[in-house]
Structure formats: C-alpha cells, structure tokens
Amino acid sequence: MNLSKSILLIATLSLLACGGASNARHALEYAADVGVEADAKVAAYHNEAHAVAYAESTSRADYDARMRSANKAVDALIVYRSALKSAEDALDAHSEATGDASWQMAMTCVIQAAGQLRSTLYLAKIPIPKAFEDLMKTASMFGRDCEPQL
Amino acid sequence: MNWVALLLEAIATTANIAAKAIEDDWDDAPKRVFEVWKQEQSRAVRAHNTAEAEKKFGPSDEG
Questions:
Q1: Which of A113-122, A129-138, B25-34 has the lowest mean pLDDT?
Q2: pLDDT tens-digit series, residues A70-109
Q3: Residue of B49, B50, B54, B55 to mutate, interface with A, max A Cβ within 10 Å
Q4: B20 contacts in chain A (CB < 8 Å)
Q5: What is the pLDDT of residue A2?
Q6: Is the Cβ of B63 closer than 8 Å to some Cβ of chain A?
Q7: A69 at the B interface (CB within 8 A)?
Q8: Interchain pair A54, B41: CB under 8 A
Q9: pTM of the model
C-alpha cells in the first residue's frame, strides 16, 4: 500500500460520510488492498510464532497458549475480509432510487472490523499497515455504530 | 487537536484528494473484493501449522 493509495482510502471513506455510494466500491478495493498487506504480515508472524512454539512447547496447551495472539490475528483478518464481502453484497443490492442505506451500515461494519484487526495486530506486535492508522483516524470522526439502521 | 480542527483538516484533505483520486485510479472500474484478496494466506498458514502441532502434541482442548 503506497502513500497515494492510503490517501485515496482516507478520501474515499470521508466521501462515504456524505453518502457517495459510487465511491464505496473503490473504498472496498483499497480496503481489500490493506487486507492483503496485513494478511502477508500475519502469515509471516504466525510462521515465526509457530517455529518457536513448536520447538519449545512441552504440551499442546503450552503450544496453544504461545500461539494465542497469532491465532487471534488470523481470526481478526477473517472477520475483516468477511465484512468487506458483506459490504460488497450490500452494495450489489443497493438501490439508488430507494435510498437504501444498508450499504452505509455495512461500510461502518468494515471500519469497525478494521479497528478490531488493528487492535489485534497491535497486541500481537505485528507491524500495522500505515493505511490502517489513516483509516482509523478518519473513521473515528464519523462515530457510527455497526448496527442495522431503523 | 480538538474535533473541530480534525473536521476541518478532513474536509480540506478530502477536497484536495478527491480531485486527485478521480484524476488517477478512479478512472478504472473497481475490482471485486475477492479479485483483490484472492487467497487468505494467513488462514492457510494457520491450518498448516496447526496440523503440524497436532501431529506432535495431539489435539487441542480449545476446540
């Protein structure tokens, strides 16, 4: 993820607050780019953690304890990717004419999943992609909840 | 920095960058999520590593 893509991500998410549905697909594309970058980091981290835990653990419980943060990072990535797909599905179903706001809620869930992933990476001491920092800084200003809008 | 300053900064940033975005990458049709993120690398790595651990230590109690 280069600087221009990070900037595009911020811009896109900012535009989303104004209801730009047509921009949402670009936002998802860049959010997926961030995910790919994080995925590679988490995979490398998992391998490193596994190598140590496999060699030094005395039992399965010991191994599981040593691998807990790496496994949580993988779980957070799975949730994040799923949130992206859900948002994309919501966009597919979106109708400009009816003003359906479900995709906006889905995008908020993407931001929330990104925040969860960022926290997990931080706790696991995995380098956090710069785009995530930018994403969360911008997203925090809009403060919506990841819940269906009534 | 308070929220007003943050908001002003975001507005200025967005205005400038949206123009650049439209000029550059947004000329292209957006890719689908699964086109960009085809394989879950870390998930596959975990599955492999967990299988290896299971051979050495046996099944996990964590489910």
A1: A129-138
A2: 999 999 999 999 888 888 887 777 655 455 566 666 777 7
A3: B49
A4: 4, 7-8, 11
A5: 52
A6: no
A7: no
A8: no
A9: 0.70
What phi and psi, each to the nearest 5 degrees, are found at residue B32? -70, 155
Q: Which long-range contacts (CB under 8 A, 24 or more apart) does B15-23 make?
A: B17/A7, B17/A8, B17/A10, B17/A11, B18/A11, B18/A15, B20/A4, B20/A7, B20/A8, B20/A11, B21/A7, B21/A8, B21/A11, B21/A12, B21/A26
Among B30, B40, B44, the residue with its CB nearest the CB of A81 is: B40
Dist. CA A111–CA B18, nearest whole Å = 19
Specify the 3-state DSSP secondary structure of B6: helix
Cα gap A19→B32, rounded to integer Å: 20
- Residue A67 confidence class, pLDDT cut points 50, 70, 90: very high
Residue pointed to by tokens 């975005």: B21
Residue B58, chain A, CB below 8 Å: the answer is yes
